[in-house]
Design goal:
The structure holds 2 protein chains of 2 kinds. Chain A is built from 8 helices and no strands. By secondary structure, chain A is mainly alpha-helical. The longest helix of chain B is centred in the first third of the chain and has 22 residues. The chains are: A mainly alpha, B mainly beta.
């Protein structure tokens, strides 16, 4: 996996970090181009005056889920510098976090959260997130796809490295 | 020391990851002057804007009714929510979001004349070629012959071509529709519980 391949490789970790940040930047640019202020917290509160229209970007409404998992997996791997076994879990942990946040938007969980006596104990933003969001199965799929891509990409890179070493 | 720094960094990445999920969700307001829905725990939030009112039942327009509801209202009609605009040599077409298309004669640019309004439920986009108007109507594509306007003929209707969007006509983002059943028809509104 990525972590093992670039383990102890400073340049490799920087590369992972940069790819991760680039993916995050791409996601932010997508939100700036394709979403309205009233639909997104950070656009509303940052009150960004300049709104570019990079409509040539490859984008769909589920892509942020994929980008989020992939980007944060790469950034985490860059910092964690894990062993092969541990590296495998990083994309899975981020995919699980995304899946959890998607599931709290499901009607059943929404109603349960809203009516729960212990709602006050939960962070307010989390309750808002649950109540205002809409559950989407495709978002879950894209989250898993993001984790899968990091794993596959890392695996391929590892195979390439092994072959290079043999040559 | 290095280990502590690494753990702090990891914690920050985790926090950033979680915050970025929440930060890309729709916003909520507490200030009553804002137009959006309110925080349910906010004392000065009017009851009808509290999140507790998010549940609503859909109001449907049956597919039969949808497919027989295109008609012309002659003369000038107010534009409620302007959408896409199309112009050709003589006519100007203005989409009124989810309502239909206004047609104006602009042969005299100094005094454009409203010719009429074609009611097309769920219409948000249009295209024109010659005297043929292509419009969407919720999930259908409708081809309208305007040759003898204000007399119109539906030349063709391609059904179920566009994706079903339960929230197409619902601007109020505090509303959450439950028990959506696409078999009953398209959704043109909602009824609140309380």
């Amino acid at each position: 996996m990525v972590g093992s391949v670039i383990r102890d490789s400073y340049h490799g970790r920087i590369l992972l970090l940069l790819i991760g940040l680039a993916l995050l930047g791409y996601g932010a640019a997508g939100y700036l181009s394709f979403r309205t202020d009233s639909g997104v917290y950070f656009l509303t509160f940052l009150k960004i005056a300049y709104r570019p229209s990079w409509h040539v970007m490859i984008w769909n409404d589920h892509l942020p889920s994929l980008l989020h998992v992939a980007a944060f997996s790469l950034v985490t791997l860059a910092i964690l510098n894990p062993t092969l076994e541990r590296a495998l879990y990083v994309p899975l942990v981020w995919a699980s976090i995304n899946l959890l946040f998607e599931m709290v938007q499901h009607d059943i969980v929404k109603e349960m959260l809203f009516n729960a006596q212990w709602r006050g104990w939960l962070p307010r933003l989390f309750v808002h997130y649950s109540q205002r969001g809409r559950f989407d199965l495709y978002d879950m799929f894209y989250s898993l796809l993001g984790a899968g891509l990091v794993m596959v990409g890392a695996g391929m890179y590892q195979m390439y490295q092994k072959r290079e070493r043999l040559l | 020391m290095k280990r502590i720094l690494k753990n702090i960094l990891l914690g920050m990445v985790f926090l950033a990851g979680v915050v970025s999920i929440v930060a890309t969700s729709p916003p909520i307001y507490c200030n009553v002057a804002d137009s959006g829905p309110c925080d349910p725990l906010c004392e000065d939030c009017p009851p009808d804007r509290r999140l507790g009112y998010f549940n609503a039942d859909p109001v449907y327009l049956s597919y039969d009714a949808l497919r027989t509801s295109v008609r012309v209202v002659p003369g000038e009609q107010p534009i409620k929510k302007a959408g896409k605009i199309f112009v050709d040599d003589t006519y100007l077409y203005v989409n009124d979001r989810n309502r239909g298309v206004h047609i104006y004669d602009h042969s005299d640019p100094n005094s454009p004349k409203a010719l009429g309004f074609i009611e097309i439920p769920g219409n948000v986009d249009l295209a024109v070629k010659g005297a043929t108007l292509f419009v969407d109507s919720f999930i259908d594509l409708v081809v309208i012959d305007l040759q003898h306007f204000p007399e119109i003929t539906i030349s063709k209707r391609v059904t179920d071509i566009f994706p079903y969007n339960a929230y197409q006509m619902i601007d109020d983002r505090s509303i959450h529709l439950r028990n959506v059943d696409p078999k009953k028809g398209v959704i043109i509104g909602f009824s609140k519980d309380n």
